[in-house]
Write the structure tokens for this entry.
Amino acid sequence: MRLGIVRGHVVLSPAVPELLGKTLVVVEPVTMANLTAKNGLAGGKSLVAVDDLGAAKGQMVAFTEGSEAANPFWPNQVPVDAYCTLIIDSITTGKTQQQGSEVKK
């Protein structure tokens, strides 16, 4: 599982049948350097993830990748490489805490 910041939404046309009704978001992974610096930046290579949680643009999320990303759809086979598993409220690293709302948009 990794952390990332939602940068936008994706619309498929024509839609993939297995993903009808699902929200796709562009997620930019947060690098460890930016997480420990608490600068609100991400810095990783963006990817597309399925989001059933309703994460808004600029929110920090945790996401899984690979075959584990398809587990929420089991027993169906869905062409998914990344899945948002939770929305981050706050992160504690060391002795300070960063709120999810402090992420730069």
Notes: The mean pLDDT is 87.
